Amino acid sequence: MIILVLNSGSSSIKYKLFNQDLKLIAKGNIERIGEKNSPYPNHTVALKRVEDRLVEDNIIKDFSQLTTIAHRVVHGGLIFTESTIITEQVIKQIRDMIPLAPLHNPANLEGIIAMQSIAPQTKQIAFFDTAFHQTMPKLSYSYAIPTELNIRRYGFHGISHQYLLKESAKLLDKPISDCNIITLHLGNGASATAIKNGKSFKTSMGFTPLEGLVMGTRSGDIDAGIIFYLAQQKNMSIKEINSLLNRQSGLQGLCGTNDMRDIIKQIKAGETKSKFAFELFCNRIKEYIGAYIALIGKIDAIVFSGGVGANSFEVRAEICQDMEHLGLTIDLYKNRGNSIEISQDNSTIKLFALETNEELEMAREAKKINKS
Of 5, 18, 231, 308, which one's alpha carbon is 20 to 30 angstroms from that of 283? Predict the structure, then answer.
């Protein structure tokens, strides 16, 4: 059994190859797809190059050796509540959801269609970032706007939150169905999820990935009236506002960089803008933790992950500061050493710092589907 996991973006493809024991045997990426003077005019050519690399490295003879191809798809809407074997009907349904994810679903589809032409006999499975959150109750996914508009919270980063739940259950030595945890996927994109009895109960991203936490270039939560103000008083177009909130805001808009490592260096150099951006980023996460504890009740653990969450001890320390009254006490020594468990022994809420692994989660599920 050989499983190829693909994450197809608009101009890049990331891939990992797993054997039957779910051991990683190859990984890589192709960039600049479709760009001027690029050797990869489209996803088909790029994926053929992936095949050539794997053949040159004597890992496979060709793509016909693959048992399964697992594709990450950002938006599955209400249709897809779990991973799904790809058929022409599934492709149509993913295409129908492009208005919900215009930047992501088209690129995800490019990868699927390209692999159908290159390896037509190989089983392909779609894994949806929204699927994990389809267990949210109506109170959690609803907005206070007319219901006939059919606008609701979907949530994203679901593959990551699902992986973190499973790993946390092992650390807690509890069945997944007994776990009440808060998972924090903190990277350039960032989201928090309240997991109750092993299921997504509430998550910070909403109808789009713009809602919620302060992110690298996204604003996160703002007063919706700001959009009207920008249009009416600043004469900005919808396209300009979209770009402002998605690509020019967040940490980037506050201090000129979206890289937390650079921000921490600038803080040490006395940069006040960077210090404020850091504090606002952490404060928003703290607000969500408090809200989610109120919703779930007693929780077992808080899990930090993503490029920032798993690696920045400064961010974790700032978020956990003065939270002892909630039963949450960080061990600063363990935290600075990037241990997996970073809470003190007397903390009633465990604190974990874990690297996420969405590709492994997809490979695990693909193996189960192959067996079933």
Answer: 231
d(CA 259, CA 278): 11
Q: How far apart are CA 241 and CA 248, in angstroms?
A: 10
- List C-alpha distances in Å: 38 to 11, 74, 211: 10, 26, 34
What count of other Cβ atoms lies within 10 Å of the Cβ of residue 199?
17
Summarised one tens digit per residue, pLDDT across range 282-324 is: 999 999 999 999 999 999 999 999 999 999 999 999 999 999 9
| pTM beyond 0.90 | yes
Q: Give the three-state DSSP class for 142.
A: strand
Does residue 101 surpass a pLDDT of 90?
no
Determine the average pLDDT of the residues in 127-138.
97
**Residue 339, token pair as written in the block:** 């241990």
Tokens of 31: 């960039």
Angle (CA) 332-333-338 rounded to 5° is: 95
Pick the CATH number of 174-353 from 3.90.170.10, 2.60.120.10, 3.30.420.40, 1.10.3720.10: 3.30.420.40
Half-sphere exposure of 64 (CA within 13 A, CB side): 1
Residues serving a catalytic function are 129
The 10s digit of each residue's pLDDT in 6-59 is 999 989 999 999 999 999 999 999 999 999 899 999 999 999 999 999 999 999
Alpha helices by DSSP H, listed for the chain, are 43-56, 88-96, 105-118, 138-141, 158-172, 225-232, 238-247, 250-255, 260-268, 272-296, 306-309, 313-320, 332-336, 358-371
Query: How far is it, in rounded angstroms, from Cα 37 to Cα 340?
Result: 44
DSSP string covering 69-119: EEEEES--TTT-SS-EE--HHHHHHHHHTGGGSTTTHHHHHHHHHHHHHHS
Q: Measured between alpha carbons, how far is residue 284 from residues 67, 212, 230 in Å? A: 43, 8, 23
CATH number assigned to the domain covering 3-128: 3.30.420.40
Tell me the pLDDT tens digit for each residue of 230-248. Answer: 999 999 999 999 999 999 9
Provide the residue ranges of all domains of the chain, joining segments of one domain with +: 3-128, 174-353
Cα–Cα distance for residue pair 355/77, rounded to 1 Å:
27
Contact yes or no for 76/68 (Cβ under 8 A): no
